[in-house]
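Model: You mentioned two targets. I'll fold them one after the other.
Researcher: Yes, keep them separate.
Model: Target one:
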Amino acid sequence: MSIHDGEVLVLSDEAQIHGVDFTSAPSPRKPITVASGRLRGTCFSLDTLETLPDFAAFDAFLRRPGPWVAGFDFPFGLPRSGIEALGWPTDWASIVRHCAAMERAAFRAALDADRIARPAGARYPHRATDHAARSHSPMKLVNPPVGLMFLTGAPRLLAAGVHIPGLQAGDAARTALEAYPGHLARALTRQSYKSDERRKQTPERRAARVEIVERLQRGDNPVGIALDAPTAMIAQLIDDGSGDLLDATLAAMQAAWAWLRRDRGFGLPEAIDPLEGWIIATA
């Protein structure tokens, strides 16, 4: 399927760019984090960093008027091979509705049963894009629980009617793209740069965040975009030991990369699996 089929794109240069670091259980202590700004040439100007403490706030964010494009750090789809093994629907909207109608415990049980049925060493099926991005299988439920991120995130994208190239022809003024900050971060440092555990938020991890931010500011990074932000915001990106603010910013810069290629399918491959989707700014 061509990702260009039937799409009507918003071509304004004034679209807002968002990056979203997602969690499947948002709370005031561990909120969904959003980095927002504008793309000026090949410079991304970071304007705001905000937190969304619950899903109601996230749903409201999805319905903000466009034009905007956002990179979301959660899987939009499940592996085709896993879906077929479970006997679930094989078009994107149907599988999202099917999973949304399940209790979380039933969803867990189904994925656990599929995992147990697979041979050791190949317990988790992957999407084609997971291989390209070296990302976790969306059928994984722990460390990290990306399966639960799909379960709580994808139905909200569907309900909000956003446009998802290759998956859903929605409101082209609100374009949602799957991002993976870890893919960009790995290209900028080989060191671990974050932890949700305060005792593991070490000076070494802070130094790794400094390295990432400095390379972003110089434009010395794979997306070829320079980060411009007020000094206070740069300090927030560095001082946040959880890495959530930095991950949201990395996702925004991946979205900015895609926005520069909006007239070429947002830089996505010409043909992608319309059930699985694709992660932007990856090989």
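Model: Target two:
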Amino acid sequence: MDSGAGIFVELTDPSDENNYYFWRNDPSVYLLQTRSDLFFNRTTMMLEPKDCCTRCFNHETTGNTSYSLTNDETFEGLKIILKVPFIPDNGLRFIEIYRMDLNQLSITAEAYRFLHLVKQQSETTGSVFDPPPANIRGNMLGPDTPDEVVLGYFMVAGETERRIYIFGDELEFPQPVSLILNDCRLVDTITSAPPVDWNVVRD
């Protein structure tokens, strides 16, 4: 069964105007449990313990490709609680502590339409009943080839950010724990030292 952490935001929508919201999260960091003393060399077929740490920090961009969007068509001027990015549990992320920075952006109607089309197309299941892929045009043009389709959209948005620490013992349905049976420092995104701004806060 799939499980993970669902993130919710409480939003008070300004009245008498159309508003469009976009949530995304910056690269996240989480604690890993490692057992380099159990490293097994498949070439020699022998147990070859390595001298490393038992806890490491992994940096990843998971969640950035699954952003959230909405407009205030159904909650104009109201206070509402919305579910935004869902972070799946892969047996590694929520062993101890997972940190994410959630960004809320107020965007234009044009930016909303572009992002909505991109999200809709990226989540297409691939069945025979799916609509054909749309030719999504952004607001970027090549200076020498204005008719060429350029992927991307330039936007300016009002932004607020919230740093969130998620603790593994808070998950109702945690996945079985996966251990790194090697020197964690051999992986590009992993370090043995915490980030300089690692300041765990439990709400």
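Researcher: Noted. Anything on target two?
Model: The helical segments are 109-122.
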